[in-house]
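Entry 14: structure prediction run for Exopolyphosphatase. Input pasted below.
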Amino acid sequence: MRVAAIDCGTNSIRLLVADLSDDTLVDVVREMTIVRLGQGVDETGRLAPEAIERTRVALAGYASQIRELGAERVRMVATSASRDASNADDFRAMVLSTLGRAPEVITGDEEARLSFDGAVRGLRSGEPPYLVVDIGGGSTEFVLGTDGVDAARSVDIGCVRLTERHLRSDPPTAAEITATERDVVAAVDLAREVVPVEKARTLVGLAGSVTTVTALALGLTGYDPAAIHHARISRDQVTEVTDRLLTQTREQRAAYPVMHPGRVDVIGAGALVLRVIMDQVGADSVVASEHDILDGIAWSLS
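Run finished. Output tokens:
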């Protein structure tokens, strides 16, 4: 069966069209567009009209591909930014008119479960229980489990949210970095109230911040999903990359061949979230996964 999954987050909107059988998911199309839907939401509580329009343009292209490729089932999930916004109805109406169906604005717990399912199916690196950490633009999900989810919590830290809140200088100041670290530590403490992170044997990191840090740690000369998927990098490598990014200007970060243009201004915050989480949970390494909530959405259509 051919299915189409759309994940609309705070920073990006992504499409996966795949052929799904009982135990395999074969990509037909996998795309990402940086739309920054969550622009200013942390400060204003509202989705900016220009952000909704950027998302509409990207979604219109995805809808056309879904029709052309003949997907039998379609599911669009919207996460942190559209959960937080007071004008989420404007976003919902736009999606309904563009895609022909309404988005599902899911809870943080459902987001966490979909992320875990997408990441752990097919994982051959590391030992369970797994602690899956999905670092998004507006939120981060902590999920502990082996074959299924044992505990999950979503907390309101992400690369876009923390950049807008604290990391406003180029490069960030020491005070801005300290304030960001403080927020991440507090968020990990919140997650720990529900998720017994100390039980984890393997930390699995998801989403663009993690995969970009991994690409930098590996010294790749171009973004290579096959090289990144299930690669393991150490806490020392994460610390080195994070420290480097936080001392560089936007221009210097943009010069990396693995850096997506839409991630240049928020990668420092994303790397810092990963580094602080590793410190707080005592993880010596992290396994990066290119499969995440998008794959979980596709599996949910079986």
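Notes: Residues 49-69 form the longest helix (21 residues). Will compare against the previous run tomorrow.
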